[in-house]
Amino acid sequence: MQTSERRFFCWNMNDKIQNTKNEAVGSIMRAESAGELEDLRVSYLGRNGRISLLIAELKDMAPSERAQAGQVLNDAKQTIEKTIAEKKRSLKSETKSKFDPTIPGTEKEIGHLHVVTQAINVIANVFEKIGFVRVRYPEVEWDWYAFTALNFDKWHPARDDWETFFIDTKPSSKYGPMLLTPHTSSGQVREMQRTKLPIRLLNIAKCYRRQSDVSHVPMFHQFEGLVVDERINIVHLKGTLDYFAKQFFGPERKTRLRPYNFPFTEPSFEVDITCGICNGEGCKVCKEGWLELGGAGMVHPNVLKYGGVDSKKYSGFAFGWGVERTYMMKSGLSVPDIRILYSPDIRFLKQF
Amino acid sequence: MDILIPDNWLREYLNTTATCKEISKYLSLCGPSVEKIIGKGSNAVYSIEVTTNRVDMMSIYGIAREASTIIPEFGKKAKLTPPKIKKINNKTKLKIIIKNDATLCKRILAVKIENVKVNKSPNKIAERLKSVGQRSLNNLIDITNYMMWETGHPIHVFDYDKIIKLGGKIIVREAKKGERLTTLDGKTYKMHGGEVVFGNGKGVIIDLPGIMGTKNTVVDSKTQNILLWIESVDPVRVRKASMSHSIRSQAAILNEKGVDPELGLLTVLLSAQMYLDLAGGEIASELVDIYPSLPKTKKIKTTHEFIESRLGVPINKKRVKNILDNLGIQSIWRGNTLVSKIPSFRANDMDIQEDILEEVARIYGYHNLPSQIMPGVLPEPLSESPFAFENKLKETIKNMNGIEIYTYSMVPERFADKNALRISNPLGKEGEYMRTNLTHSLINAVVQNKQESNPYHIFEVANVYLPRKNELPQEKMMLAGIFCKIGYTNAKGVIEKLLKQINSQVNEYIEDDPVFKKGTCIKFLKGKLDVGKIGILRKTDNIYYEFDVEKLKSVSNLNKKFKPIPTHPPQIEDLTLIIPQDVLVGDVMDVLGMDKNVVEVKLVDRYKKDNSYTFRLWYQAEHKTLTDREVETIRNKTLHTLRMKLGIESK
């Protein structure tokens, strides 16, 4: 070793004494038996103990420094002796009983992330692995984005004030009334306006619908997927949904598409997954072996048009499902009333 | 829309070897969803969900037509049995004068049948009506329900003589505001104005067409002559009237979706025959057919390339044509372009080439398509994504025993700021406003956990909605939480650790805030930027905190920097000070940590009785161990400053 390096790595006497003292005190405090204490005493204060060796080094020091080092060393020795004595006393006063391993451990507290947060994280993770970009679009939205741009006709029931929450404020001349979005699909045209193609959107956000009963809660979460590119077709929709189902629910689960109808897709589908309880055989919980996941479809050309995308050159697919519903199907977690998911009761929150 | 379809009734129009289970499976895969099969054998009834765009399937005949196309795709035989229609040749003019308004009603069909006998319906009819959820009343009314189920077009029957007594006229018009009518079930309604009604020309309403008949013209046990009647009222007006008066009859549910007017002719002819068979009677007039404008035949063009590229698999032109022809969509190939004629019963549903694609694809079978994730270039990620930071906050708090909660964005008036956005149609007063802070929701959550005797810490990360003029509100993400039955230093310790974990460059300042008890609030600021606050709530002893997540992110850094591990041990010493009441501990600690060689200051003990506080100081220089003399110098300087600036003496 070069001299400069040695200086860097070699502690001076004060340092050595401090470290030794700190180490000794720590070990003594952790000792669990008198025997252990005795071993420690020997290893630090015995004839060949660490302190004794340091004392021996004193004579190699310059006289000017020897006195001070000696004082510090003496202090350290006394501290160690004192600590050993105290620990010995405290060990003695502990009741000596037979060690019983069946005694229950002390209860430890842990924190909890909400089940909806956990669900969102899992879902986001699955789609991000195949290049989806996660975003979060407005919950308070314009009628234009929530309905008009999604090709809903003026009289569609979802636009009634029986089904959708409206905000008591002056409507926009361009975008219509302000409302609480009933579906994350309102992010589709926003995404098409925000970025150039290709699009692989994952919009996860709060949605609101005017319904409250055992299977509906007025505020809930949806996750929306939108893929727009050249030559996107139904095989790709199937592929993406199958991929999600296998990643999220398990490799043995299968999906199927059934014809359906939505204003913003053509063709439209409903997506089912094989029941996890009966494996597709049919049972009390499912419909002939299938459970409904949600809707999907090929993006309607009018929607692409509203988003400024040339529907002759590009095509896309979209799907939008409930986070709570989808997660509950995964875990077989059945709650008698879905509104319990938004309960503030700690006895519920601590279960996850 | 849901419909019950009895299997034996279906098989009068659908000739097939497929079993009930097979029919159910094939339909669900390629057409309407069969939710379940009720009963079995000859009594089996399909419960089918029909989407709102396919009102043509809301009938026995409609389902039979679909099934006859779908079932052969699975290798089983199926043929559609056409209905047996008998033409009406009577030429006698109808004495009732009908005046139509073509803007309100697209078609009217009417014929008089005289000398009918009111009776109970035969068992077969009554049984079938029962199995589809309709009550059997008498033969005259039952036939209208039966036919509606069989063909999908609602049909009505008037007591002919009652109409004559009321003036002998049927005038199609809009109701005036305030006009009254009494439906056949005895309920009276006041019109809003604009509902399509039939008037007698003398101010009396004699029918609410498409929705429900009225008491003054309904058939009863004394009826001798009937007027068989079909009309096609504008679907939008039907829906409006039906919803606003809450009369959701089966007729209304069908009519508001736009039933094919062409179906009317088939239905009136089949119905007339049924009346002759079941109620005696003879045809006593011509068949009146007021059909102001025949619908134009719609044509849709598409290409072979389009169909194959959207389907994702090759499909030959012959197959495409076969599928469409079987569905009643007559199609011809001209080179690689396909021209399809849309039948009247699909006119409302099909407009663009994607609709043609859907017909081809669903009959081809989605289950027959392969499954592949799309290849291609991946999109650009977001330049500023908030999610990793939000998750870091949640995880860190969770690791310190925080329990995450989700509360509703909608709150009652007493929780909302003066200018908060109001919902004009809330579900109740408890959810009338969009919240502008998380404070009340969390306080409320604590109230709802009254039964909890142990300490706990709940937190939430959620948007609050701050109104903006002529714009959507700002959706500001907030982190907030409440410590319940947890001491102030413990609570603050969690928050300080959180800020340390995300390397927040914020400082603590004392500043009052209306939410907290006076003198208990600490604000976290970086320069002038107000990032968050913590304090003791007014009415309870619970500790509340909140942060503006975006601002917090802007002053934090998730990327950790490596700090070289010190090569020399520190000098650690304890200092006990008496701190008078009017001096802040925070200020003392600032002084203690002033020297650059004091790398850490911690409060390790506190004896309230005499205001003595024990601090532990870590003295460390970068490349050497400080000597006792050097430490003493620093200590003396510190004590001097404490004495001069804050008037503090050491113990």
Question: What's the helix and strand layout?
Answer:
The complex is a heterodimer of chains A (352) and B (651).
Chain A: H1 3-9, H2 13-30, H3 34-45, H4 50-57, H5 63-93, H6 115-128, E1 133-135, E2 140-142, H7 143-146, E3 178-180, H8 187-194, E4 199-208, E5 219-230, H9 234-249, E6 255-262, E7 265-274, E8 290-299, H10 301-306, E9 314-322, H11 323-331, H12 346-349
Parallel strand pairs in A: 1-4
Antiparallel strand pairs in A: 2-3, 4-5, 5-9, 6-7, 7-8, 8-9
Helix pairs in contact in A: 2-3, 2-5, 3-5
Chain B: E1 2-6, H1 7-10, E2 14-16, H2 20-30, E3 33-38, E4 45-49, H3 60-70, E5 78-80, E6 97-99, E7 105-116, H4 123-131, H5 139-151, E8 156-159, H6 160-165, E9 169-174, E10 180-182, E11 188-190, E12 196-199, E13 205-208, E14 212-213, E15 226-233, H7 235-244, H8 250-255, H9 262-279, E16 280-283, E17 288-290, E18 298-303, H10 304-311, H11 317-326, E19 330-334, E20 337-342, H12 353-364, H13 387-399, E21 403-404, E22 410-411, E23 433-434, H14 439-447, E24 456-468, E25 471-484, H15 488-501, E26 507-510, E27 522-526, E28 529-536, E29 543-548, H16 549-554, E30 571-578, H17 585-592, E31 598-607, E32 612-619, H18 628-646, E33 649-650
Parallel strand pairs in B: 6-9, 21-24
Antiparallel strand pairs in B: 1-4, 2-5, 3-4, 7-15, 7-16, 7-17, 8-15, 9-12, 10-11, 12-13, 13-14, 18-20, 19-20, 22-23, 24-25, 25-29, 26-27, 27-28, 28-29, 30-32, 30-33, 31-32
